[in-house]
Amino acid sequence: MMPSLVTVLEDGLPVGCAEWQGGLYRLADLGAPREVATLFEDWPHWSAQLAAAKPTGAPLPGGLPVLAPLLYPGKILCAGANYYDHSAEMGVPNVTKETTRLFFFFKPPRNAVVGPGATVKKPIGTEAMDWEVELAAVIGRRARAVSAAEALSHVAAYTVAIDFSSRDLGRAPETFYKIDWVAGKAHDTCCPMGPRLVPADAIGDPMDLALSLSVNGTVKQNARTSGMIYSIAEQIANLSRIMTLDPGDVILTGTPAGVGAPKGTFLNVGDRVEAEIEKIGKLSVTIQPEG
């Protein structure tokens, strides 16, 4: 089976690594490209090569800074209001699949993605920074107008993501469109991902994973991916009819109940946010001053 993928900072440069038994081994030392993003240029080839590879020599020393595993995604597409309980807590009564439209918004791939640590900056001017833990799917094979039945075969790997929002900046009640998705969702550093990419084969059923999020040690979200309204396969099928999904694109698949907005509870500088998903691991970030 292919190992998980991690990116660390070594001598000031991002270095893609394969993870075996807790040890990290440079991709380049295994005959693969130096950076994880390059693997997606020919994912079938490189994933097969890494699945057959064996680590040689000692792993990298511990303590190297961990970055987002995929530093340079293509597109970042995020499913909105895609859990039954989250829709209910946000004031949508009697949610059913038949009465709910699947929709998405974008995050900027270069500036929004960060890894664990003191990496997330509070958006400028917000007083309502909110959290959402999400399972993120990374595309490994081009998908265009695929069926839900074949959609998951286009997924290379999964990781943990946190969708940070500025609820106040996104509101536009005086306008006909009511919500400004860019102002609310597209801020720099507000899409941390990590700590690793886990190959899809190692995940098994992505629709039955535990996911949780805590703020300063207090659990806020605790659910399973089975609570989605539209499955990951349905999301991919739907998106692929709108646009081509390319290798290295990332899809955030929605968040369960427990966000701050319904209670008016929001994040402050210095808060520690930890998101965890079964079979993937824990992503921990600390909110920094705005910028």
Order of helices and strands: EEEHHEEHEHEEEEHEEHEEHEHEEHEEE
Specify the overall morphology.
globular
- Oligomeric state of the chains in view: single chain
State the distance separating the first and last CA atoms. 42 Å
Please summarize what this structure is.
With 291 residues, the chain is α+β, with helices and mostly antiparallel strands. It has helices spanning 36-39, 43-52, 84-89, 109-112, 148-151, 167-170, 181-185, 200-203, 232-242; strands at residues 4-10, 13-20, 23-26, 66-67, 76-80, 103-107, 113-114, 117-121, 129-130, 133-139, 155-162, 165-166, 171-172, 178-179, 191-199, 210-215, 218-224, 250-252, 272-277, 281-288.
Name the descriptors.
291 residues; alpha+beta; 7-stranded mixed sheet; 5-stranded mixed sheet; 9 helices
Describe what this molecule looks like in 3D:
- With 291 residues, the chain is of the alpha+beta class.
- 18% of the residues lie in helices and 34% in strands.
- The strands form five sheets. Strands 6-5-18-10-11-15-7 form a seven-stranded mixed sheet. Strands 8-20-19-16-17 form a five-stranded mixed sheet, with no helix packed on it. Strands 3-2-1-4 form a four-stranded antiparallel sheet, with no helix packed on it.
- The N and C termini lie far apart (42 Å).
